[in-house]
Amino acid sequence: MTEPGSLYELVPAISVEESRLVDFAAAVWPDEAPHFGVLSSWWRRAGSDCAVAAVHRPSGAMAGLCGGRPCTWSIEGASVPAIAICDWFVAPAHAGKGLGKRLVRHFEAPNRFIYAFSISDAAVAYLRVLGWKGPYASSLMVAPLPRVVGMFFRSAGDGGLAFDERDIAGAEPLGALGSDLDAIEAARGHAARAHMRRGAEEWAWRLSVCGKRRYRFCIARCAEPGGRAGSAGRPVGYAVVRRMSAGRSRLMDGLKAAMITDLAAVDDDSAVLRALARKAVDAAAAMGAHVVVAATTSVAHRRALAGFLSPALPLLGRLLARRSPLFMWRPHGPAAKLRADDMTLTFADVAIDLDL
Question: Is pTM beyond 0.85 here?
Answer without folding.
Answer: yes
